[in-house]
User: Fold these one by one.
Assistant:
Number 1:
Amino acid sequence: SPDGLTWTAIFGTDTLQYLPPALTATTYYRILARAPSCSAVISDPVTITVQAAVIPGVISEHQTICSGWDPDAFTETTPASGTGTLGYQWQSSLTDCSGGFLDIGTATGATYDPPSGLTQTTYYRRITTSTVNSVICTAASNCLTVTVNDVTPGVIADNRTICSGGDPDAFTGTTGF
């Protein structure tokens, strides 16, 4: 039953076990038992409550920073939603947006301010959980990238000594840039 009031028989289910199909809406089940020459007896219904899908929300945009700088805090541009109590866990990956994500310790708020001093391009996402009746459903947000622009100054070739008023030769770089 979709409402606990209107019931439909499930044909081909004449045992005491029944494995329901995947459900997308709350559904009620009961057993109708009948012995030869007796009236039907109906069990109390059981309810299979289906949580609405967890919507992970959208987190702020990609960033490019210089090596060692402080990325801006990540915020929601579209809030997360779910039918239960929402929780969050931020994750990062040094690989790419498709894998290798690890939880970031205590980063469990709706927003996250990554630490300063980032020296490697890092990928971030937020896992949103929705808990109803101790059942936890999860969904991952979009992935954002903090690209680290690793500029090295290089080395200028050769110290020089010139006469006062003299014109030094052009400087050239020997490594880096």
Number 2:
Amino acid sequence: MNIPLFQIDAFTSRVFGGNPAAVCPLAAWLPDETMQAIAAENNLSETAFFVPRGEDYDLRWFTPATEVDLCGHATLATGALVLGRLAPDRRSVRFHTRSGVLAVAREGERFVMDFPARPATSVPADARVTAALGRAPSALLSAERDYLAVFADEGEVRALAPDQAALMALDRPGMIVTAPGREVDFVSRFFAPRMGVPEDPVTGSAHCTLTPYWVERLKKHMLSARQISARGGELDCELKGERVVMKGRAAFYLEGTIHL
């Protein structure tokens, strides 16, 4: 069996930046264990698999360790593949996922994604979080998947070197850290070692939580964001009711074939 494989850098305009996602178009679903094995072999934050569903597609995402409910950068990469290569006459595409219907549309050189908001609520300071991050955040919030740790400035977020084992022991698999940005509205990093991702380069799903927080704090609905991982990535975010709109670019890096 030969399976097409594309590797696309998401939330960046250049290769070697943003978050690399593997994308595999399928005629029909492979066994779950096969898709998980491919994701582990690819060893990227996520591998996306999608199959036709009428004019739409069904879409699933796997980290090297597990299937996940929501992934932004691999959805952006899949949308870029469909709209840029597989169906270049189309302006938009819809994906049916475990988090509902997600839409991706073209807007000039950028791709626009419509995702569900995942707002966080304040929780008491937690010594386990402070120990895992190596310093105490100024505020701690919790969403359905992630903790959101807020720091006073960008330098604190850049300097963090979390204890990965301690992060794995927390009761949330994901850890978002954020602060006001020097050149953008806010910056962030994202850690999820329990999901097989020690640090994610750029995390669209985390911005489903970051956007409501910063909209409320900054009292503005259009936000510029930068994830300050080693690779780095940029996106614009907007809160529309219970939805978050994210805009970003994508760069095609690799095209090949998996032989099974």
Number 3:
Amino acid sequence: MNHVPTLLVTGASGHLGRAAIDHLLDVVRIPADRLIATTRNPVTLADLAARGVQVRAADFDRPDTLDAAFAGADRLLLVSTDALLEPGQRLRQHRNAVEAAARAGVRHVVYTSMPRPEPGSPLLFAPDHYGTEQALAASTLDWTVLRNAWYFENLFLGLHPILQGGHWYSAAGEGRIAHIARQDLAEAAATALAADFDGRRTLTLTGSEAFTTREIAALVAPIAGKAIEVVDVPVAALVEGMRQAGLPGQLPEVFASFDSNTAAGGLAEVTGDFQALTGRAPLPYRAWLERNAQAIAAA
């Protein structure tokens, strides 16, 4: 009888990790007792535990928790954390996880990275992703790096003030972003985790089209029922505006560097890697906007 691998998903309380778990259970039909879901707070995953999923506590800031959390896993999905307030914290977390995976005898790690994280990227947290990729490369592990483009859902992060004032302040210029739906990326992560691939590979997962900020505004405005004017501003003005809005620490600089990276072309590439991995095309942006029309109008 063939061995059924045990699959582990970190960050299972987050949007992406939970969606990957749900896809594994409900679509791929992985037996619940062959799934491990880790989180800092297992109480939040009580419903998964009730279905038979092994729910374990894991804190990447406490490496002593990881050996027990990862024990028995054959393949592990390492969902990048959201620790952005303290420079270097996220990379330390990821290195702790990579080292623990190797100690636990994990065969394969799937890691959620970003497009073009190499040195020289204007995005301030790109070194976290590149450093994690380097840690995997230096390890004894096999791995799949998923360089995930930005979510369509990121639109909601700033949509309310945009619609309220009618202005979209941007330093992205004519740079393009090949956004993709978060659910599509969760499916891709689940597919890579459940696959029988045991080598090393890097895939860049993008949508099928790349749009400028002005093009996105033109698509969103009629759905929202509000006029949106894109106003070009320097990066320093974006930082100051976010600081005045109360964003703490280095977050204004981090979020402004999204636009710097877009302007530099860091997110413009469109690839066929999503379809090659999942067997289908990613959801188009216009279709996602139509599906979320009510939420957009309510913003």
Number 4:
Amino acid sequence: MHTGIDIGYNAVKHITSTTRLSFPSAVGTPDRARFSLNGASEHAIVLTQPTHVLVGAEAVNQSRFLNRREDRRWIESDEWLTLFLAAITETSTANCVPLDVVTGLPVAFYDDKNVVAQRLLGDHQVRRETRNAQTVRVNNVRVIPQPFGTVLAEVLGPTGQIADAQLARANVGVIDVGGKTCNLLSVNRLTEVARETASVNVGGWTLVRAVRDWLAGSYPGLDDMRDHQLAEAIQARELRYYGAPLNDFPARIAAIAADLARQVIAEASHLWNGGAILDAILITGGGALLLGDAIRAYWRHARVVADPIYANAVGYYHLARRLW
């Protein structure tokens, strides 16, 4: 099975020929709701092997203790591999799941690509609650810079063929607003331009922390929300305080997002010498929905890609089809 998987600091996105799924990058203790009418617990991702944990949205809601990391060595952790295996159990119930995998790393951490490949290659044993044990057999792995996935999603078709020859020959800039970092990538004829590629240490979690600080001063109690819960409220632009909507919440998000966008624009303008030589600037990542308008207003040839949340994972999958 060919798969593209983006294991981000905020969420896991997984693409195969038949599946498109996303869940929060959260691994926690296997605490469960004792009663529910909405069926959420029935669809919870509960692994009993390699460790007994709750994964994803139900972990955010139910786990007494929750693990969420943002550091470079996260790829060496048990939680990171657990997220990978959990995604595969969402895709297949087969006893043995052979995989050809394309995934990505932030541009600042791309030197760790061999670490990722070695962690994924080979056989992994996983068991999900109420199911038989599964062997996840990773035969091939290719690790690319994360935002390159968006370029490939635009250039390659679902079977890996060139679908946009003009863009494949172009000079393209990519602004990938992720959870921890904003990756700035320059590509010329599908080749990275290393001197014009960098990472800015701002992202979605920067916005979450800034909003949390504001809530602590203005609406005590709301700042105790878990990170993923607050991130979800920010995406929805909606939050309630003692049952009443916070009418100033959307405006505060917009103001903080504008400040972050100005920082990203300043870094990208310096890196790309103003951006005039680029044929297009693609804005991607979950943060594109928050910072995209401000960035587009600065560059006339910038655009938010059609599916910014999944774009990198889609490109990974297209590349997997092309390679194997």
